[in-house]
Each structure stands twice: as structure tokens, then as C-alpha cells.
Specification:
By secondary structure, this protein is α/β, with parallel strands linked by helices. It folds into two domains: 19-131, Rossmann fold, CATH 3.40.50.720; 132-392, N-(1-d-carboxylethyl)-l-norvaline Dehydrogenase, domain 2, CATH 1.10.1040.50. The protein has 16 helices and ten strands. Strands 1-2-3-4-5 form a five-stranded mixed sheet, with helices on both faces. The chain has a five-stranded mixed sheet with strand order 6-7-8-9-10, with helices on both faces. A hairpin with an 8-residue loop joins strand 3 (78-83) and strand 4. Helix 6 runs antiparallel to helix 13 and helix 13 packs across helix 15. The longest helix is centred in the last third of the chain and has 17 residues, at 330-346. It is elongated and about 80 Å long.
Length: 392
């Protein structure tokens, strides 16, 4: 903002030092402590000050709009107006209707947020805990903590995979630190940032003949092209033996290399009677991703594993090795985000388009979870979830 714009903005601001000073307002947005009793007291007092046509809005991130307005004389004029930090940079506004909120009230707030003066991207939502974003985003943190507890890899590696392969702006552990899990600031300000685990360069295979799994052809086309650009033979080959459900995505130097489908590499190797099995993780865009996560079956020999590592390294990926956990990192997290998003839509919290807009505009996800599901393929996501369900 220029100094002239800032000065002009200041002339439009009027400070009220007592609550009665907002008596002439047509919209009052509450942004106080997240305590429902304190909010109820404030709204009850505001109701005696403002005109009947004034809209009362709460910027709460998760407290029920219905409960906040339960004691009001006119609860139909209370609506949620949840902004996202930093507000000047984040476009999303969740317009949240309580059970009593009148439709014209929600529509007026929605239109106000989209007006040229506000320039926001609002979405309509109902009022269960967490609304859209704080509900759907839970697996982003929850799966990271679960992966850490399973000793899949260290936090720095997990963050690097989510950013460099998954396309997220920040990894879950870095984001949790930023939001405020620190007991005190000293560890964050004085400690060096940990480095992700990256496998040292391995000699790649002499050649590779990919075998196409029909359900994931479109998803990994960019990866095939990237391998071809690195000088590998990219084509179809047959006679690789019987595999339980589908042939490997790639096959080289005896290693069967699959895009993760939710099962562990060890479990897949056992079912297929093929010890040398390696899995690779989902990436937002295989053409531009700079890192890929690999996991090997417990039965997998070093030669086959090194061939798989070398294959991806030769194509320009930094390779992070993670332990053989179900669903790996990006695929598992995205599948869980998609599941939570679908559940929110199924329960009428919001529309499918609203949940995708909310997660992109509110928390900067690289793609909405349901749009991402369309890219991966609904069948593939359901397969991943069905493999995770018995394990968890």
C-alpha cells in the first residue's frame, strides 16, 4: 500500500472507544476471544445498540454460529464471516449460516465480500465444528503426526516430500511450528533448520521398459516423458510374470516399481510373490517435482532397490527413502483430505466446488482435494482408502 493509499484509508477509519459508538453500523464483525460465553454476552449487548436491520457477524474459526446466537432476540441476523490470516493476502471468507440465519443475511455478506472494495473469494458453509477449512485440513497435520509415530521418516524429510513432490507451500511440521506449537521461541530462532534425508547418488539402470497400469496411465504420463527425456527406453513390455492386480508401473533390473496404492511394499511383494518391489509416492506434477519418496519391501534386495533409486535420480529427482508405511506420504495425505472433503459435502456443510475453493484460497493448497481426486482418479483414491482402513 502506498503512503497516499494508507493516508486515505486512515481517513475512513473511525475508532469507537465504547460499544455504543457502533450504533449506526449496518454490519458489525466480531473478532474477539474464542470463548462462546464472551461472544454471547457481546452479541446480546450489541443487539440493544444497533438497529434491527444491522447484520451481526462472527469471525470465529470453529465455534458454532447457531450456539453463539442462541440467546439473541433476533438470531436470524447473525452469520459467520471467517477470514484467514494474513487477511490482506488470503482471499477466502467462509460465510457460515447457523440454523437461524436468514438466507438474505448470508447472501448480503457473501455479496459484500465479493464486491470490488473487498475483493475476496467467499464460499457458503453450514455451521458444524470447523466449518470447511479447519475441518478438511485436519488430515494434513494428523497424517503427518501419524507417519512420524510410525517412524516413516523424520519431520524435515516429511516436510520436504510434501513441498517438493506434493506442491504444498509449507510442510505440516513447519506449519505447526508457525501456527504455534512452540513452548518458547528459542528453539525456533536459535536452532538450525534440519535437512531432509536425501539418498546419495546411485548408479541408474541400463534401461527401463515401463508396463502400463490402465488406472493410472494419465496420472503418470508426465513421469514417463521425463524418463524418456533422461534417455531411458519408454515402452510397453510383456512377460514380466503374474502380479496380483496390475503389472508394475516400471520394471527395471528385476525391480517391480509401483505407484503406491495404499498397501505397503512388503504386503504387495508378498501377495505378488515378487520380493524386489519398490513403491513411489504421488506427486502434484511429475513433470516439475524436484523430489520423490520411495519405499522398499523388506524382502527387496539392494541391487533392485538401488536400480529404482538410480532411475528416479537420473530423471532429476532428489530421492527420499521412507520406511515401508501404508500409503506413503503425499498419496496418503491427499486421500485423507479428499475423504474429509467428500464427507463435508455429503453432510451438506458445503458444495463440492466450495470445498475446493476454500482449501486453495484459505490455506494455499496447490489443488482442491476433490479436484485432485479427479486427477488421480476416484477409483485410485478409493483403493488407497480401502487399503488404509484395515490397517488403521
Amino acid at each position: 500500500m502506498s503512503s497516499l493509499d494508507a493516508e486515505a484509508a486512515n481517513t475512513r477509519l473511525h475508532v469507537a472507544t465504547v460499544l455504543a459508538g457502533v450504533g449506526g453500523a449496518v454490519l458489525v464483525v466480531e473478532a474477539i476471544v474464542e470463548d462462546i460465553d464472551v461472544k454471547r454476552t457481546l452479541f446480546a449487548e450489541l443487539e440493544t445498540i444497533v438497529a434491527d436491520g444491522c447484520i451481526l457477524a462472527t469471525s470465529t474459526s470453529s465455534i458454532s454460529v447457531t450456539a453463539s446466537g442462541a440467546k439473541l432476540r433476533r438470531p436470524q441476523r447473525l452469520v459467520g464471516m471467517h477470514f484467514f490470516n494474513p487477511v490482506p493476502l488470503m482471499a477466502l471468507v467462509e460465510v457460515v449460516k447457523g440454523l437461524a440465519t436468514e438466507e438474505p443475511v448470508a447472501d448480503t455478506v457473501f455479496a459484500t465480500a465479493t464486491a470490488s472494495a473487498w475483493g475476496k473469494s467467499p464460499v457458503h458453509a453450514r455451521s458444524p465444528p470447523g466449518f470447511i477449512v479447519n475441518r478438511v485440513a485436519r488430515p494434513f497435520y494428523g497424517e503427518a503426526l501419524r507417519l512420524l509415530s510410525e517412524q516413516a521418516c523424520d519431520p524435515a524429510t516429511l516436510d520436504a516430500v510434501m513441498v517438493d513432490a506434493g506442491g504444498f507451500r509449507m510442510g505440516p511440521f513447519a506449519l505447526m511450528d508457525l501456527i504455534g506449537h512452540d513452548v518458547k521461541p528459542a528453539p525456533r530462532t536459535e536452532a538450525a533448520r534440519p535437512r531432509p534425508e536425501t539418498v546419495s547418488l546411485s548408479s541408474g539402470p541400463d534401461g527401463v521398459s515401463p508396463v502400463n497400469g490402465a488406472r493410472i496411465d494419465g496420472l503418470i504420463d508426465a513421469l514417463r516423458q521425463r524418463l524418456a527425456g533422461a534417455g531411458f527406453v519408454v515402452g510397453r513390455s510383456a512377460g514380466l510374470g503374474a502380479f496380483e492386480h496390475e503389472a508394475p508401473t516400471f520394471h527395471c533390473n528385476g525391480a517391480a516399481i509401483f505407484l503406491t496404492g495404499g498397501r505397503s511394499a512388503t504386503g504387495r511383494a508378498d501377495a505378488d510373490h515378487h520380493a524386489d518391489t519398490v513403491l513411489f509416492d504421488l506427486a502434484l506434477d511429475y513433470a516439475g517435482a524436484t523430489r520423490i519418496a520411495l519405499s522398499r519391501a523388506d524382502q527387496c534386495g539392494d541391487a533392485a532397490h538401488n536400480a529404482a533409486v538410480g532411475l528416479f535420480q537420473a530423471a532429476g529427482f532428489a530421492v527420499s527413502r521412507i520406511d515401508d508405511v501404508s500409503g506413503m506420504v503425499v498419496m496418503r495425505t491427499v486421500a485423507m483430505l479428499a475423504n474429509e472433503a467428500a464427507d463435508a459435502v455429503n453432510q451438506g456443510v458445503c458444495s463440492a466446488s466450495a470445498v475446493d475453493i476454500a482449501m486453495q484460497k484459505g490455506v494455499n493448497y496447490p489443488r482442491g482435494p476433490l479436484a485432485w481426486t479427479d486427477t488421480i482418479g476416484v477409483r485410485q483414491v478409493v483403493t488407497v482408502l480401502s487399503k488404509l482402513a484395515p490397517r488403521f
